[in-house]
Amino acid sequence: MKQTAYIVLILAFGLTSIINGQSNKKIKKGIEKYLAKKINKNEQGASVLIGKKGKILYSKGFGLANQEWHTPITNETVFQIGSLTKPITALCILQLVEKGKLSLEDSIQKFIPYFPSKDYTITIEHLLTHTSGIKEYLSLNHQNPFILRSDLESTEIIIFFKDEPLNFMPGTKFSYSNSGYFLLGVIIEKVSKLSYASYVKQNIFEACGMKNSFYGNNFKIIPNRATSYVKDNGELKKGDYWSMSIPYAAGALLSTTEDLFKWQQAVFNNKLLSKEWVTKAITKYEYSNGIISNYGYGWFLDFIDINGSKTIAHSGGISEFNSLFLYLPEEDIQVIVLSNYGDTDVNTIAIDLAKLASGNELASFQLNKELKESYKGTYESIIDGEKKTIQIYELENKLVLDTVEWKLEMVPLTNTKFQMRNARPIITVEFIKDILGNIKFISKQKEQLYEWKKID
């Protein structure tokens, strides 16, 4: 009897394996077909990896890492990952917290005494959750027009923004802040007595076996490094040069899709941090007024909607490199897209790939024609005390949001909700019509909400 039960168990296990294998084969075929249509190999370059249940389901490179040498992209091609650096910086901070070398409640001044208190205590937790209110140093005007190309000490950059007034009281709202993560890099150095680059190398890259990941250096020979490109008036050009001292702990790391998969596996299998602290990192931060945000410690949480699944994600963009890391914890699916072409829509690609990897079909939503007409017009909002206007119009049968500075195609998700194509980070807008027929929309990017009222 026992032997019969054992044989039945083996047969059942074997049948399940065959079914899963057939299912994954079908999924991979769908992914291949989708990417063949989505990525123009003659212009766009991208490396794509999809993981499922702890294993790599799909990993492939598309296009060229270097247009001049016609070097193809592979799964070992090294990309600048921009703000995907932030979850790694947050992880380094949490390692130091777990070791008792600092506390989330510690103030900035404990480690950077020359940073003004500004009448409020700004804690490490505020920096991690983008709730410090500190001005964004990359948005401030600087007398040196070539500041992004200049190699500067961290102290020089902090001095540039430290005396700026706060945007709001710490802990009360979200405002995405490269400044906060820059400061976290300096704190890591102060506490560990290592450079940020050395700490990350020893405690993250080497610990995970990430042999193709680096702190950015424009002069170092880095094997398989990609060059970035963008189209300018129809002509393909190289991306702008940035000194890596500028993004620093907010965006200076380089990696590959396969290395980032190794890192994700190490993090969520508690190899780099205890389960307790990993759980805290992916817990939504609560503002002082009790409202729950969509950000934890270095991660956007449930910010991307994929058929109601929980999502953990972060994007990155620097010098025409684009990246998105997306994890569905309940399905145990990871999607990593790294691109060296400025107009590659990594957001849409990653979201669609996550749906396909989950076994779902992609369905394009067709917007009601009458609604499309009603959304066209001029909209107005007050942002930081200044009146702003934008236009929404139709171009080649598609709605376009035009701010003068940039034009973005509006991709309909429902009759009222849209996502902006190629926007980095993701921008969504949702239209609302009141009982009198007046139309407005709410735009959302990185937790920032703005109300736009139709005036024409």
Automatic annotation (TrEMBL):
Residue ranges occupied by any Beta-lactamase-related domain in the UniProt entry: 41-344
Signal peptide from the UniProt entry: none
InterPro entries for this protein: AmpC-like, Beta-lactam-related, Beta-lactam/transpept-like
Pfam families assigned: Beta-lactamase (PF00144)
Name this protein carries in UniProt: Beta-lactamase family protein
